[in-house]
Amino acid sequence: MIPSIHDRGSETIGLISYLYGPGTKEEHIDPHLVAAFDPLTPDPGRDPKATYEHLQRLLDQPVTALPASKRPEKHVWHLSVRAAPEDPILSDEDWAAIARRMVATTGIAPDGDEAACRWAAVRHADDHIHIIATLVRDDGRRPRLHNEARRTQAECRRIEADYGLRRVPAGDGTAAKRPTSAERHKAEREGRHRTAREELRETVRRAVAGASSEDEFLDRLKGAGLLVHTKMLPSGDLQGYKVALPDDRNSDKEPVYYAGSTLAPDLSLPRIRKRFTTDPAPRDTTDSERPEHPTASSAPASARRTATHAAWAALLVLDANSDDGAAAAQIAATSEVLDALAKTSALHTRNELRQAAWEFERASRSHTRAEFRHAQDLRRAARDLVHRGPALGRGEDGASTAMVLDALIFLITATAHWHAQRQHAQQAEAARRAAVHLRAAYQQAAVAPLTVLRERGRRIAPSLRRHYVGTVRAALPDHAETILTDPGWDALAATLTDVTQAGHNAQALLTEAAANRELDTADSISDVLVWRLRRTAGLPAYAPAAEITSASRLTNRHAMAPRSATPGASRAPRR
After folding, report:
1. Distance between alpha carbon 557 and the CA centroid of its chain, in Å?
2. What is the strand order of the sheet 238-244 is part of?
3. Domain spans of the chain?
4. Which CATH number fits domain 2-163: 3.30.930, 3.30.2420, 3.30.70, 1.10.10?
5. What is the structure's pLDDT at 23?
6. Closest CA to 504 of 545, 483, 532
7. CA–CA dist 432, 426 (Å, integer)
8. For the ranges 114-123, 154-163, 270-279, 287-296, which has the lowest average pLDDT?
9. Which of 60, 163, 241, 304 is the most buried (most CB within 10 A)?
10. Residue 103: φ, ψ to 5°
11. pLDDT at residue 422, rounded to an integer
12. Sign of dihedral through CA atoms 375, 376, 378, 383?
């Protein structure tokens, strides 16, 4: 059950007209009163003699009784309470009881207070009610409202338990502010899929991803097409910023600006500054100066390799479960990596990655203070992803995207577990939702490179395949039967061939790859091992043909002989 406290208004009659009217899309069906401060309150929905003006005068009576100079300008209080889609349809009596609990818990009408504010609860749909109240008590005083949003959330959790409704994860005050009903209606009128507030929050988060200074952050905002207004201190230092969409205007045709802190708690300038290192920002280098991974065929692929290594290193921090500040920083930086990937990945994966980043944004904030000095590898990876530009959806670009998504799925699953251990219910649920979208993006990115490997695996000589069957049984006795009957076994066999031809001990590397992280929850153990082996051995992610080097021109008999891993080969840390 979701409560929403809307912006206060100045016209009672306007809200009454909306509540009893047809709705913006004729969605209001049978609007009627379910409860009110007085059982004899007129109901314009069911009583043909009652009018909107009659109800308005009754609710506003304590306000109009005050001298004009003492009347509050915005005296209309508005709360909506909505049940989950899967909840049973509640009766009018049930909704009436819920309305009374809501006005009591917020301080609008405490139980037993005969001089409380006047209010009415209107139902115009099966799944929700609206409560309207006027913010002057019958004794002429103002109500004592304190933390009403948090109180309504807590009361809804109790109502869910009492009525057997879906249990919504409890909040902790770190969520981004929801768009108001006026913002949603404006977006609908203008044909926007999201409100201006939501569009700005996503754009600002992308500008933060990997940024190393205020100047870089502000330049990214302007480069994304936003209107940016900054406020400077007398010293010349930046005090704050606010942003607007160029085409989002108010009734006076002026841009509607939002301060960063009103978009999300961690988008205020002081919170963004904490992400920057104390070291000087790294200078921009040309593509020819940037170090490339030896197997990467493009700058975007190299950036994805770097992000993969950083993601696996972040998993170590979450697994250690000892430094909450470091873990919170890794989680927040993971959100930056997701934003950078959503911005730079190919079209066929972009939508799912954008949704994953959007969902994970909630998981990136909690009351645990993030110590960003521990998460600079991930932040640099996010910056690298942005600076190296968009990736193609094919070849090494597409395959390295699948590789980094494979690692991020494990990292985000670990994030959900970390939050759940600390009773961060909303954050844990958000991480789980993000993982669903990441898996969908992974399936889209991985299909081409894994198909190539599977086709190669089917052409391996029978004697060599039997050898690798023995390798799997020896290295992974508990998972061998699952792997050997998995559709991905052919791709793993091709990868074991590449590992051997590159001079590594396939059995030792396979054992190490399995030890990096549990495999029981993997959709395909074979596919997971493919990416771990190719990353650990420094092999190309996209391999239409085995890499042939002077060191690997060996007979099958010699190639199958055990050998130790090549000194200096990239190794993943053991879990």
Report:
1. 51
2. 227-232, 238-244, 258-259
3. 2-163, 181-273, 299-446, 459-559
4. 3.30.930
5. 78
6. 532
7. 10
8. 287-296
9. 304
10. -70, -25
11. 94
12. positive
Note the pLDDT of residue 574: 34
DSSP 163: H
Find tokens 């005083």 and name the residue: 141
Residue 130 vs residues 18, 80, 94, 147: alpha-carbon distances, Å: 11, 4, 14, 19
pLDDT in tens, 75-91: 999 999 999 989 999 99
- Two tokens at 52? 């909107």
pLDDT at 168: 83
Residue 92, by phi and psi: left (phi above 0), alpha (psi -120 to 50) or beta? alpha
pLDDT tens track for 51-107: 999 999 999 999 999 999 999 989 999 999 999 989 999 999 999 999 999 999 999
CA dihedral 263, 264, 268, 274 (to 10 degrees): -150
- Nearest in space to 306 (alpha carbons), one of 326, 288, 291: 291
Contacts of 407 (CB under 8 A, 6+ apart): 307, 308, 311, 312, 315, 531, 535
Task: Decide if 419 contacts 431 (C-beta within 8 A).
Answer: yes
* Amino acid occupying residue 458: R
Residue with tokens 């569009």: 199
What DSSP string runs through 289-328?
TS---TT-SSHHHHHHHHHHHHHHHHHHHHHH---HHHHH
Tell me: the pLDDT tens digits for 467-516?
A: 999 999 999 999 999 999 999 999 999 999 999 999 999 999 999 998 87
- Phi/psi for 119 (5° steps) reads -150, 165
> Considering only CA atoms, which of 205, 178, 171, 183 is closest in space to residue 354?
205
Tokens of 1: 């059950």
Segment 375-397, tens digit of pLDDT: 999 999 999 999 999 998 899 99
Spatial distance between the Cα atoms of 366 and 527, rounded to a whole number of angstroms = 33
Q: What is the mean pLDDT of the chain?
A: 89
* β-pair type (76-82, 128-137): antiparallel
